[in-house]
């Protein structure tokens, strides 16, 4: 029997429903909530797959998951990449690959990070050439963290005055200033296993509970374009689970937000139809992955020293 473990936090609906669904299918794969305590260097893990829904908020879990991966557990999403990614790098990768993204500038944080002084910033041009930055991005624009989620510290700014008012509130958070895309349609797309895509019309200008009730829908051509972009983005960056958001302006989908390795999947939030899709598709994906069994990763420098390709053997 292969085993899937779920690691999660405050979520109410998705993790228990997923455990139930995997067990209900009875395909030689069982699922349960992960239970762990202190982790030793020798810890082995009984799971073939762990679905991680929470390590972005719990550093202990992130550290545990890296060791689980070392020992052959297939962790969804990859904890090494989740430790390294940021939105600005992601925009830069997509931009290089010819995927439309808004013009974006990375800004030094407003205040110094802890334990640094002005001397730590001798390499930084001061003052910045703000006008050049504003000319590049234009207004309205979005001031938002280079690494973050849940709309936290996201500001829409319409003028230089509004920009500085917002920037002055951002303390030591590293921010980006991004061209605002004046969109006619907006799509939020689940992408699972770099192959299954579910496109959801999404109206971010609506109140929270009405965002999945949009009065637009993709044409068949737009649907194909979005599906292909999602797969390309998640494959390039290595996300096994993600939501990819696009704002459409003049028929062109601009990739806005695609660093969501534990995307919202609450029934009450994403609505019943989307919930059923994410639940069923994730169950299929995790069962397929678990059937392949645990596997020591082969893509890291340290891989060469530990015997790759098979499950961890107990001594
Ligand atoms: N460049 C942009 N153009 C238009 N709208 C944007 C842009 N950036 C962000 N937004 C709006 O702000 C919301 C939150 O920004 P997002 O980048 O998705 O951050 P988060 O990761 O916190 O969700 C988006 O859903 C969208 O409605
Ligand atoms: Mg978002």
Walk me through what this model shows.
- There is one protein chain.
- The longest helix is centred in the last third of the chain and has 21 residues, at 272-292.
- Helix content is 31%, strand content 20%.
- Helix 1 crosses helix 9.
- The protein has 9 helices and 12 strands.
- Strand 1, helix 1 (14-25) and strand 2 (29-33) form a beta-alpha-beta unit.
- The model has no long low-confidence stretch (mean pLDDT 95).
- The chain has 3 domains: 2-83 and 286-305, 3-Layer(aba) Sandwich (Rossmann fold); 103-179, 2-Layer Sandwich (Dna Ligase, domain 1); 183-258, ATP-grasp fold, B domain (D-amino Acid Aminotransferase, Chain A, domain 1, 2-Layer Sandwich), CATH 3.30.470.20.
- It is α/β, with parallel strands linked by helices.
- It is globular and about 60 Å long.
- The strands form 3 sheets. A 4-stranded parallel beta sheet has the order 2-1-3-4, sandwiched between helices. The protein has a 4-stranded antiparallel beta sheet with strand order 5-8-6-7, with helices on both faces.
- Magnesium ion (MG) is lined by residues 245, 257.
Q: Distance between termini?
A: 21 Å
The helix count comes to 9
Please count the beta strands (DSSP E, at least 2 residues each).
12
Biggest β-sheet: strands ordered side by side in the sheet:
2-1-3-4
Q: Architecture of the largest domain, CATH level 2?
A: 3-Layer(aba) Sandwich
CATH topology category name of the largest domain: Rossmann fold
**Could you give the order of the helices and strands?**
EHEEHEHHEHEEHEEEHEEHH
- How many domains, as an integer? 3
């Amino acid at each position: 029997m292969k085993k899937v473990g779920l690691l999660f936090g405050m979520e109410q609906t998705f993790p228990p429903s997923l455990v139930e669904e995997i067990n209900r299918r009875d395909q030689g794969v069982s699922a349960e909530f992960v239970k762990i305590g202190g982790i030793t260097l020798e810890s082995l893990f009984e799971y073939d797959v762990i679905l991680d829904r929470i390590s972005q908020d719990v550093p202990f879990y992130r550290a545990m998951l890296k060791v689980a991966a070392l020992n052959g557990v297939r962790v969804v999403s990859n904890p090494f990449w989740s430790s390294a990614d940021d939105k600005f790098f992601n925009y830069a990768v997509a931009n290089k690959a010819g995927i439309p993204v808004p013009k974006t500038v990375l800004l030094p944080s407003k205040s110094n990070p802890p334990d640094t002084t002005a001397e730590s910033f001798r390499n930084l041009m001061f003052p910045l050439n703000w006008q050049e930055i504003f000319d590049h991005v234009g207004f309205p624009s979005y001031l938002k963290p280079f690494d973050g989620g849940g709309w936290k510290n996201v500001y829409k700014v319409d003028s230089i005055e509004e920009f500085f008012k917002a920037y002055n509130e951002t303390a030591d958070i590293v921010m980006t200033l991004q061209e605002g895309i004046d969109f006619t349609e907006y799509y939020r797309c689940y992408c699972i296993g770099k192959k299954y895509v579910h496109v959801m019309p999404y109206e971010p200008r609506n109140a929270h509970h009405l965002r999945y009730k949009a009065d637009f829908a993709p044409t068949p051509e737009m649907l194909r374009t979005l599906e292909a972009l999602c797969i390309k983005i998640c494959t390039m960056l290595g996300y096994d689970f993600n939501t990819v958001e696009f704002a459409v302006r003049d028929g062109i989908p601009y990739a806005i937000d695609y660093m969501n390795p534990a995307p919202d999947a609450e029934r009450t939030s994403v609505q019943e139809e989307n919930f059923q899709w994410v639940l069923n598709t994730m169950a299929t994906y995790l069962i397929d992955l678990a059937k392949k069994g645990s596997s020591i990763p082969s893509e890291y420098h340290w891989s060469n020293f530990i015997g790759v390709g098979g499950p961890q053997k107990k001594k």
